[in-house]
Amino acid sequence: MPTVAPIRDLCRHLGQEVAIRGWLYGKRSGGKIVFLLVRDGTGLCQCVVEAAQTDLFATAVALGQESSLELTGLARPDVRAPGGVELAASSLRILQNATDYPISRKAHGTDFLMEHRHLWLRSPRQAAILRVRHTLIRAARDFFDANGFTLVDTPILSPGAAEGAGTLFPVDFFGAPVYLAQTGQLYLEAAAMALGRVYCFGPTFRAEKSKTRRHLAEFWMIEPEIAFAELPELMDWAEGLVCAMVRAALTERREEFTLLGRNIAALEKIAPPFPRLTYAQAVDLLRDPQLHRQLEQELEADRVRLKECIAELAGLEEQHTRARQGWQQDKLAQQVADLREQIRDLEAQVAQRPVHIEHARNFVWGEDLGGDDETLLSRQFERPVLITEYPRKIKAFYMKPAPGNPDVVLNLDMLAPEGYGEIIGGSQREDDLDALQKRMADEGMHPAPYEWYLDLRRYGTVPHGGFGLGLERTVAWICGLKHIRETIAFPRLMGRIYP
Ligand code: 4AD
Ligand code: MG
Fold this sequence. Notes:
- It contains 15 helices and 19 strands.
- It has helices spanning 54-62, 110-115, 117-120, 124-146, 185-195, 231-252, 254-260, 264-268, 279-287, 289-322, 326-361, 371-378, 433-442, 451-458, 471-479, and strands at residues 3-4, 17-29, 33-39, 44-50, 68-77, 85-96, 150-151, 157-158, 170-173, 176-180, 197-205, 218-227, 276-278, 385-388, 401-402, 405-409, 411-416, 421-428, 464-470.
- The mean pLDDT is 95.
- 4-amino-1,4-dioxobutan-2-aminium adenosine-5'-monophosphate is lined by residues 163, 183, 185, 206, 208, 215-216, 219, 221, 223, 422-426, 466-468, 470, 472-473.
């Protein structure tokens, strides 16, 4: 029995008979030869079967996409093969010959792909995103480990709201109504008073009735909470965490970034210090006529590009109808689909941009920064930007007002560059019992379910704070994805619970 090797390690078996186990990703035949492209989760391997191997050849030719198999052969170097190694097949064991795999290499619409998410995950692109996600999670855990944080798991079933009653998912808890956690923060504050530096990392739930490219109903949040930390220190932690995550991805996931077509140079610019603005400065920036002029120029450029794309599409469609060979048709169909998508994006931009400019021009102090405002702001910087001191009225009850200016709070939001918007939200917490009670009363909150939380201010209260990093938004930014739905294996979105 030859050794079974992961495809990634085949280069260590050159000149040997080895077996690989995996799935048929693609097949190409050139008369006297058939190439089987096999994937196993670690890589892609080109396997060669020659017509002279009569039985093997017939079997190989009949294999359907995503058939499961074990293939044995001689590993030999080949510069044209993915990974630089090719397997000269000598035997093939079929576990299952799959027929009519629904996701062909032709272009599919997003709805179709989402409906087949359980199979779509097998595509190299989706697997690459999941690997980047994995690395980002590990990097965050390593960062906290290296800095003396203790992981504390916070409950998912909670008696009340922490981030606004409007986005709660109710659950029946033995006859009593409770809710899925929107954050682990309140419990983490208790843990920070016990352990000093703590963090939690778990699923959080928000019944946001918005279908945007940034919102999931179920998302994962990494939340540190730190005793004695005030706002400037919290900003340093947020900056350090994001830099550590980006660095790890750049070190370990080059191949994935290349496959995703990610602009790596943009990621290489992510280093401290991140620009820091107050909300008031951000408002000035939004209202700056120079910004509006720049946006108008970009709009003009988008209009020109849109016309070019439309002209190009006509040409491509013509070529597609004239194409004779299957593979040529597939390739052109993909190009047509890509271009159509680009046109749709440009049309949306061209239609929306004037609205955004107008909105920025008329922005008034006190409004919350919406997704579009965040996009405009974060496109102005090459590094993530930290925005602090938002109006108290638009922020959660637990945030501490700024000394000397009670209209604003000591919060921090981090916006990722390239238009990705908010990836981190956090604050210094109100640590004064009276002030907190008053704020809760102003918000009409019932104190009873929060007595334990108020106890933290009764027994040895200290300045403290923390933040939450939305993992999926961070993955979307770091992978350069247009939509958050591809950042998690099985996204839960308004209108999507299958598969
Ligand atoms: O700004 P948020 O609501 O902050 C909190 O929940 C705090 N309790 C965290 C803390 O201080 N410990 O959410 C934090 C981050 C956002 O910046 C965003 O990245 C992400 O969570 N997020 C979402 N991601 C995907 N879909 C949604 N619906 C999200 N809502 C928030
Ligand atoms: Mg927020």
